[in-house]
Each structure stands twice: as C-alpha cells, then as structure tokens.
Amino acid sequence: MSVLLVSTLRIKDPAKLAEYRKAVGPMIRARGAELVCKSDHKVADLAGNLNADSVVIFRFESMDALRGWYDSPAYQELVALRDEGSEGEFAVFEE
Question: Percent of the chain at pLDDT above 70?
Fold first, then answer.
C-alpha cells in the first residue's frame, strides 16, 4: 500500500534549507518516491492555524520504502542540515 509523507516546515535559514532540498530530492526520487506537492507560498488558513511556511508531500510505494530512505545513513547525515534550515513535522498517511 502506498503512503504519503507530509512535511510541514517553518523556515529558519533559507540558504540551508535550499542546500538540504538540493541533496534530499534526488535521494528520495532514487528510492522510487514521487513528488506530489511542494509549496512555500501559503495563501490562507481556512480553519485553525497551520503554523508552516512550507508543505511538501511525497508518495512512496510502501512504508518499508519510506523507512528505507528515512533510516538510511545517507539521509541521517542530512538531518542536522534540515534542522539548521527549518523546524517542522513529518507525518505519514496511508493512501
């Protein structure tokens, strides 16, 4: 069953976040994931307050594929850079 990785971020350092994204995008796609949505331009909150400057959604073929990427040593090396550039949440949803 495919899963969606939903990332909501608050940008702290745009240059560091750009560096992280440049490295992580190809890494995720190499694992067979597909970019569903990416936007750094929130227009409005309709109900509640989503505290995010950015949202990114990737589709993975399975939870195992997602964990294979997320838990990989190559991705774990990028976590510090991600955290320097942003703070936020990652959540996984079944599709």
Answer: 100
